[in-house]
Amino acid sequence: MLLLPQTNQLRALHTVIRDKNASARDFEIYSRRIIRLLLEAGLDLLPFEKREVTTPVGETYHGLEFTSRVCGVSVVRAGESMETELRDMIPGICIGKILIQRDKRTKQPELFYKHLPDDIGSSHVLLLEPMLATGGSALAALDVLRDAGVPEENVVLINFLASPTGLERVSHAAPGMQIVTSSVEDGMNEHAFMVPGIGDFGDRFFGTVPTVAS
User: Fold this and answer.
1) Residue 203 annotated among the catalytic residues of the structure
2) What does pLDDT average to over the chain?
3) Is the pLDDT of residue 210 over 60?
4) Is residue 204 part of a domain?
5) What integer pLDDT is reported at residue 101 of this predicted model?
6) Torsion angle, CA of 91/94/95/98, rounded to 10 degrees?
7) Within-domain flag for 214
8) What pLDDT is recorded for position 104?
């Protein structure tokens, strides 16, 4: 697991978006700044190979490039919050979708929809899932990718907040998958919301509720 450096700037960004009185616009703007940091860190975990280019002054620069195709897969709906930043960073990147919802009776994640690139099995995948509470949705999404031929070692989970319980569960079930997060929370309350928390990330990011209690 890679935790972003807990800089003063990152803590200041978290202070804005964790405030239950933050406007939907502020929540989106400051969340997107953290999302960019997460994606940059996640991309840095992918494999690179050497590539040389000639500079405008005629010299050779000994650089790097990705060794394989990269695609994103968002867990609908909160994961879609990360798509715009990823598209800005890698123009033309393919993005798949997975819809997983928790069964109200069994409390288990249930797959409702998936749409993945045909050749995803030969790609490295950034799995976009902002909230890692119990870890059930992330593992269900990873199972979909495994069924599509993606080794877990080729998956990087881009996560906004994680609970210790979720991290332990996912790390045990998928030790080959790398995780990037901006915060490890104190735990979860009786409603399975992480604390100190951020509320429902998807609702707040897309402005479908005016405010959410922590």
Assistant:
1) yes
2) 94
3) no
4) no
5) 85
6) 180
7) no
8) 65
**CATH at residue 147:** 3.40.50.2020
In this structure, is residue 96 part of a structural domain? Answer: yes
Q: How many domains does the chain have?
A: 1
Domain that holds residue 119: 6-187
Sheet holding 161-162, edge to edge: 131-132, 161-162, 183-184
Considering the candidates 77, 146, 200, 211, report the single residue annotated as catalytic. Answer: 200
Give the span between the Cα atoms of 205 and 29, in whole angstroms.
9
Catalytic residue flag (residue 200): yes
Condensed to tens digits (0 to 9), the pLDDT of residues 38-74 reads: 999 999 999 999 999 999 999 999 999 998 899 999 9
Annotated catalytic residue 146? no
Nearest to 143 by CA among 119, 106, 177: 177
Distance of alpha carbon 166 from alpha carbon 15, whole angstroms? 23
Rounded CA-CA distance 153/178 in Å is 7
Residue 107: predicted pLDDT:
63
- Confirm whether 69 is domain-assigned: yes
Catalytic site includes residue 103: no
Average pLDDT, integer, range 176-197: 95
- Report residue 197 CA to chain centroid gap: 17
